[in-house]
Amino acid sequence: MNISQQVKLQCIGSGDAFGSGGRLNSCYHLDIGREQLLLDCGCSSLIGLQRCGIKISEITTVAVTHLHGDHFGGIPFLLLEGKYASRRNTPLTLIGPPGLQQQVEAALDALYPGVLSDGFDFQLHYVTLQPQQAHTGENFSLEAWPVKHGKSKHVYGFRVEIAGKVISYTGDSEWTDNIVHLSRRSDLLIAECFAYDQPIPSHLDYQTLMSKRSRLDCKRLVITHMGPDVLSKLDRLDIEALSDGCILEI
Length: 250
Prior knowledge:
With 250 residues, the chain is α/β, with parallel strands linked by helices. The chain has one domain: Ribonuclease Z/Hydroxyacylglutathione hydrolase-like (Metallo-beta-lactamase, Chain A). It is 22% helix and 27% strand. The protein contains eight helices and 14 strands. The chain has a seven-stranded mixed sheet. Strands 7-8-9-10-11-12-13 form a seven-stranded mixed sheet. A hairpin with a 3-residue loop joins β7 and β8. α3 (75-85) crosses α4. The radius of gyration is 17 Å and the shape is globular. The two termini are 15 Å apart. The mean pLDDT is 95.
């Protein structure tokens, strides 16, 4: 895991909760050889994964930053696909804040009553994140840092160490100095940027990111989760903006 090599990250969904600009909900795919990791899995993630030609049954781990539908709402559909479409028989690990299992099961039961009681033909593992405690997979390590997203509890940004590279992701958050800690020695920082120049509770804005840029210890900074105002100004931004389906070689 410490040997540096090129890592491919594909942005499956770069949109906000409202589908602004016709973009899909938050979802980022990392291909780690025998492991395939999703960072967040919003409601529209299966559509994006299919468009990108990614075999859903080969995803081994899903890590969720917080329990809002545009970040975890695709998991019930992921489980449904594994049960009925691909007839998955390989284990799936779901990593996230306290309450992830309860929220996933409640959503699945509401959307497709009876599916849970029938069980699955694959092992399903839930892992509860604790702040600044790393979860280690076969080829990666993921560390959660608390961030600030309104009144929501247990909201995290991620640091993923893989193949000698560090990929950091703010999830949804207004500015907090923990974003500086997230960015340390990062090869890539994915920062949400819902607003342009009017700081609002719960989210980052472009002008704040620009004013804090010198404090961010990352080689490459990209923005995502953009609202209408930011999308209308893409041609005048000095920070790279993600789009659905785009691939980053790190």
